[in-house]
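Predicting holo structure, S-adenosylmethionine bound.
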Amino acid sequence: MKKWHKMFTGHILDVIDKIEDESIQMMFTSPPYYSKFVYPFANTMWGGDKDCDHKFDKNRKYWFNQFCMSCGGWYGQLGTEPTPEQYIEHFMMIMDALEPKLKHDGTVWINIKDSYSGSGNASGHKKDTKNLGKVTSETTAIVDGPSKYPSVNGYKRKCRFGIPEQLVTAMIKRGWYFRSRIVWVKPNHRPENVKDRPTNDHELIYLFSKRAMYKYNQIKVEAEDGFKNQRTTWEIDTENNPIGEHEATFSTQLPFLPIKAGTDFDDIVIDPFAGTATTGICAINQGRKFIGVEINPTMVDHAKGRLERETFTPLQYFL
Ligand SMILES: C[S@@+](CC[C@H](N)C(=O)[O-])C[C@H]1O[C@@H](n2cnc3c(N)ncnc32)[C@H](O)[C@@H]1O
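Done. Tokens:
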């Protein structure tokens, strides 16, 4: 049997219906984080009326991140919403659309990072991303601080949005089972230019299941007196992005244990924000099938190239 993958180009909510119901065993993804980057080709319409001709204010500095003056839909990308609440709402639209595609014993693993209000100039930003904080606050409905220190929807400048916590609450309210929170510690994390809080050197991976009973192959690790159950703190170095864009990305090691635990041979793993298909490479190299969705056509080309170059046909297919 050949290694199996499908890459869809487009906005996840537009292509989701091409995927069969109850066909996906697990999702592993790292969505665009809130207020961090502006991704090329990622602006799209959220909500509103599909048949509307959409009217936007042409005098605004940014032509994206705007509500349509006719139907109220919002044109922008996941991560650049005016408020964290709207970001979570959009993310939940995606989870609602994915839910029927997931098998009844399926799981969802989400790698997510928090951000700080007014931190568009944070370290690690490049010329094209450093004003993102200003972009989000410019379009914000409620600005309640002195203009020098804009706040976003009541989150004062410097305040953490608490995105991971908001995501968990929203998922639980939607009926998902919140099963685990894994702390991904990055030993090679870049220093941060801060003196009034500890440096963040980790990100989080959340495990949710659709039902109370779900597919999970227990992972045991060596201990002094035999074996013990896998713990929730994982030390994994970041790697340079394979195509040299944005910040350091996760390595193929990160989805390794989730895929091993959440799937068996031939199960389908999906990444709705596939990027360069790191999840796909890890899935295929473990004998799983992969569906990736990516809005940026250039990135899809990179992903397809990597999926050919960096995957091998798993050994069991030769037996
Ligand atoms: C954090 S990156 C994922 C990186 C990925 N893990 C990798 O291996 O390269 C998020 C990706 O989501 C894509 N994206 C943003 N909005 C999207 C949408 N609405 N539908 C599908 N993909 C989207 C971006 O173009 C970007 O490549």
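Residues 5-40+79-126+160-318 form a domain with the Rossmann fold fold (CATH 3.40.50.150).
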